[in-house]
Specification:
The protein has three domains: about 1-45; about 60-225 and about 345-410, no CATH class; about 230-335, PDZ domain (Pdz3 Domain, Roll), CATH 2.30.42.10. Helix content is about 55%, strand content about 25%. The protein contains twelve helices and 15 strands. Helix 4 crosses helix 12 (about 385-410), helix 5 (about 135-160) packs across helix 7 (about 195-225) and helix 7 (about 195-225) crosses helix 11.
Length: about 400
């Protein structure tokens, strides 16, 4: 505890000092790395280096896993069967997704391929070819939410069938942390195919359960936000303007909130307002800047403090009576009656934790040995190592192509 406190204090002091000469994001990221380095140094007598991986093994936690497993054996066995079925289905789905994305890369489609999730000194996620760089604190939370239930479930499935857990611990690959439950491999190899399948499928199945829980939380929070009045439908956003139309000529942006003084709360009210006018009529359109925050609410969030006014001469509507603006991709906007920063932080964190859990769980089920999906495949084909080797190499090459292909072909 003394070294932990000193490491944390040192990281905070360094972060404060660096913030005077560097951006806050870079300073926080540097402080995070320093804390990790000091914690490793403080525990150096019990830490081992295996290649480029730093590993810390311990016996703590084994009794807890054993007690949880033994207290509800029937429940865990039933859950494990569901986990095996889900894992096999997702192994096939993940493989098809990989193939589909590879085809998209070859065809030059933007957004094709898969991406690595890496931490960085950024305040918002950055989308780059082959990689998503996310704020380091989101990444740390996301990895923890993935690793802890993943390894915990592996341990439970080992214990319900009597496979000994040799150790638990954490590891570090450069700055990428991880955790593990180390079973007795010799014991596990002697167990039935069913036992091995339930152990191999358990980790990613736990990640999918977590992803499902996060999805439910997002649904409940969305319902609570609207039902409490914290979010109110207001204005209509548009994805773009049609070439040659009044809105296009005026370079109109944002969400439409007023048309000649009439509040526009949804698409119907906009349509009704335009029907009162004819081609050639001049109307005053007021728009507000609109923000899209990936996460809980899909709607654009209107900022009523940042508005724009346009005097627009309406065109003739091509399909019905009334005036025509020429906006396309119209969707509902909202006003958020709560702290925007608090909502944005919670919403983005929830989204990325979901993506971490589902995405990493799915990748881990790809039929590539030594991933869990490769081990599951080996059991399904009756231990035919040549079959597993061929499929593993093919899927690994496909995965690598998805990662680096966009750099050259898109």
């Amino acid at each position: 505890m003394k070294w932990f406190a000193l490491s944390l204090a040192s990281g905070i002091i360094l972060t404060v000092l660096l913030s005077f000469v560097l951006s806050t994001d870079i300073a926080l990221f540097a402080g995070f790395i320093v804390v990790i380095a000091l914690l490793i140094y403080s525990d150096r007598k019990k830490v081992k280096r295996e290649g480029i991986v730093i590993i810390r093994r311990t016996q703590k936690g084994r009794n807890f896993i054993n007690n949880v497993a033994k207290s509800h054996v029937r429940f865990w066995r039933i859950l494990s069967v569901i986990g095996i079925v889900v894992a096999i289905i997702l192994m096939v789905v993940g493989s098809l997704v990989l193939i589909t994305q590879a085809i998209a890369v070859i065809e030059g489609a933007k957004g094709g391929g898969v991406k690595l999730l890496l931490p960085g000194p950024v305040s918002a996620p950055v989308n780059a070819p082959g990689v998503f760089v996310v704020p380091w604190w989101i990444w740390v939370i996301g990895i923890a939410v993935v690793i802890i239930p993943h390894e915990f479930m592996h341990g439970i499935m080992c214990r319900i069938d009597g496979v000994k857990i040799k150790s638990v611990g954490w590891l570090l690959l450069i700055i990428i942390p991880g955790a593990f439950v180390e079973p007795d491999e010799a014991q596990l190899k002697k167990k039935s195919r069913m036992t091995k399948l339930r152990v191999y499928a358990a980790g990613s199945f736990a990640n999918m359960i977590v992803a499902g829980i996060i999805f439910v939380i997002a649904f409940v929070v969305t319902f609570a936000i609207f039902s409490s009045g914290a979010a109110v439908p207001y204005g209509v956003n548009f994805a773009g303007t049609l070439n040659g139309t009044p809105a296009y000529s005026a370079n109109m942006t944002g969400s439409i909130i007023l048309l000649n003084g009439i509040e526009i709360r949804n698409q119907t009210s906009l349509s009704n307002a335009l029907e009162k006018y004819n081609a050639g009529d001049t109307v005053e359109v007021v728009t507000a800047d609109t923000y899209f925050i990936s996460g809980i609410l899909p709607s654009g969030i209107v900022d009523k403090n940042r508005i724009h006014q346009y005097n627009i001469i309406l065109a003739s509507h091509p399909d019905k009576a009334g005036g025509f603006l020429g906006v396309s991709g119209v969707s509902q906007s909202i006003i958020l009656n709560m702290d925007m920063n608090a909502y944005a932080t919670f919403s983005v964190l929830l989204l990325w934790v979901f993506l971490f859990s589902f995405g990493i769980g799915l990748v881990n089920l790809l039929p590539i040995k030594p991933l869990d999906g490769g081990l599951i495949l080996e059991e399904l084909v009756g231990g035919r190592k040549r079959v597993v080797q061929v499929i593993s190499v093919a899927m690994l090459l496909l995965l690598i192509f998805n990662l680096i292909g966009p750099l050259f072909l898109v």
